[in-house]
Protein 1
Amino acid sequence: MRLSVVGCGYLGAVHAAAMASIGHEVIGIDVDERKIEQLSSGVAPFFEPDLQELLADGLAAGRLTFSTDIADAAAATVHFIGVGTPQQKGGYAADLTYVDAAVDSLRTILKPGDLIAGKSTVPVGTAARLATRIEGSGATLVWNPEFLREGWAVKDTIEPDRLVVGVPVSDGIDGTATGEATAGGQRAADILREVYAPAVATGTPFIVTDYATAELVKVAANAFLATKISFINAMAEISEAVGADVTQLADAIGHDVRIGRRFLGAGIGFGGGCLPKDIRAFSARAEELGKGDAVGFLREVDAINLRRRERAVELAVEASGGNAFGKKIAVLGAAFKPHSDDIRDSPALDVAVRLHGLGAQVVVTDPAAIDNARRAHPQLAYTDDLDDALRAADAVIVVTEWDEYRRVLTPQHAGSLVGAKAVVDGRNCLDAAAWRAEGWRYFGMGRP
Ligand code: UDX
């Protein structure tokens, strides 16, 4: 099929390359000329495992092209929207400027029978509003939220857990929505089944619903994940008060299949381009709907999350002898999570910036995110070399659980470089007993 993807960031670039890899003819559109130049020459503009190979294959096969000109997408029949919906400046709501602009630009090329499939995370009600904007074009709009995780984006796009499509539904005889797809909605769902044929063929659940449900599925999933992380981080706070070990607690409750161990990793909490802004946008939208109380707990989820960053700073101060001023602190990690170079709302960098603010000589290292981190926070010192970061450090803090730090780095090797053997494990990813056995003072998050 001929597809276009408007917006070539973390979501859109991966979607375009992944769709080309399963046999479609895809054009990626973005207003950023530099990004389009990079993508066109097979260079991934950000770190994402497997993306580079997929780009190269798609370009070589002639199935994948990129352009800044929306007119080049005119031959496509399905147009995905993968632009960002960042948090508004000075508010909690999502900024829909880019989504609106994407629909307006698509309006100039839409043909009868075309499909617009929105993938961006949007406040509930957006799809219905956008559908009115394309009325008269003969095209149909559906909402097809994306659940990919950075670091696993290619796999998550090609082999998703589920596919969700919000389509236009018909009104019943009393004028209220029936929840049943209109003929146009059914046709749209069938087209998307064809787009995602390989995943559909392997039995991936394909859920056809109305716009509002599809939009809510996405924010509800992210709100649930954020709540799960903050729940275990709240238990970490309690554990700290009584000398309990939150990692053992998580293992023990995680054995209950109704709870499950995943996303019960206590530490410095969640960040990134999705969870923080999505729970805030959800709260803001619920307030607008007069249902703010229903998701009032998300404010607490956010607050718990932010408190853990402060706790990590306290521990780093304690580890460096009670005062961080003038102390060299090696900060291992800058990305908001491993396998990513994304530093948007990164708890790792936030901790580094706060320590710098206390007068520490912070040296940050990361296998992928240093360039991005340096651009955002030029006041910090950076090094690509882990040994350099560790050399003569008064304290070490692990804030992103890259394999380089949790598996490859040994307490013996680190001990041979640092000035003082004190380590804060901001992700509870080190073997505390092994580090202690080498003479390190070990500080975990919610651990004795
Ligand atoms: C998230 C959702 O997982 C994904 O489905 C959605 O499409 C986009 O948002 P992502 O932002 O890539 O994906 O990261 P995710 O793996 O969810 O991690 C989010 C944050 O939570 C990271 O900062 C991570 O370090 C943190 N986290 C995760 C924890 O602190 N503890 C955990 O147990 C798991």
Protein 2
Amino acid sequence: MTTPTSWVEGAAGSPYDVDNLPYGVFTRADEDPRVGVRIGDFVLDATPVSAADMLDLHHVFEERSLNPLMAEGPLAWRSLRQWLTGLLTDETERDLVEPHLIPLDEVELLPPVEVADYVDFYASLDHASNVGKMFRPDQEPLLPNWRHLPVGYHGRAGTVVPSGTPIVRPSGQRKAPDATAPTFGPSARLDIEAELGFVVGAPSALGTPVGAASFADHVFGVVGLNDWSARDIQAWEYVPLGPFLGKSFATSISRWVTPLAALDAAWVDLPGQDPAPLPYLAVDGPAGLDISVEVELNGEVVSRPPYSSMYWSPAQMLAHMTVNGASLRTGDLFASGTISGPDKEQRGSLLELSWGGKEPFAVGDDTRTFLEDGDRVVLRYTAPGTLGGRIALGEVAGEVVS
Ligand code: MN
């Protein structure tokens, strides 16, 4: 059975047809914030429609975040998606639904999720190899553990901010390799990391690992994510405990959360893992995602990283993150790490695009090594949809301020 397209004006065949249906939290004028669903260039105000339909789950739409909806678990997610698809494709629902379609430009989108814990991985072979070559030029680019486990660190959940939030250039300790002592001041090597974020809906019990095969039982959806990074602060502080203040000043996420079900047509085989990972990290079937990313700097596309090139899959990240018995909470966010492909124009950070700041790259008629004050970065993501076209994931924008 093919899903019919939407009757909503402009939605059919667009990146926001019924095969997408991302969730967000919105407000209009001085109304209470609540959960909405994007269709075409509208937000469906699901609260009055679900109340009129006497939907059991109508309460999840009256909330200021997606967390109560996400906590309901996969059966509820599926039934809500079926209900929404029916509303937006069946002409007989039009009279009920149409008055509650609000043009996007009339709403303000709010942070979609109350982030619980935040973990950032390092799952791209090309990114890890590039960084290894730059940070440890006299050693093997990949450290011995890299091909055996998805390397990650705990980030700062409290500084995850929604797309559009200005990014204040961080200050901290920096030490040039040839300097004898560190100095304090604003980062001179402010960078981006184009990543994909995974949002946990259904929690798990402390002491019980979540297997890779249970990924879709726990992960609600995906967000675009920019892991802003101060490379000079990072390079001086990261040994031996990993990233800290070079990362924790801000992480931007999209204001729309794309449900996992919208990515049904996007699963692809991983590029290949050698050596085969330990049994708890084994995955069956296509575990990678064919998501195309576009990095735009000051209006110019500077890179197109392919998510399909990622070495470690999100299911393996989840399995690894919980294999010690650590529990999941609703709102946990874990991110892929910088998405970089093998080619130069597929690198997801300026560190790599400028090869450690040594090779300025073109941004339109201008050049850059790292970010300057006033620079604006937008990350855009698309994936194959189940209707044959492409769906758009939430974009992530941010401007650097001094
Ligand atoms: Mn990162």
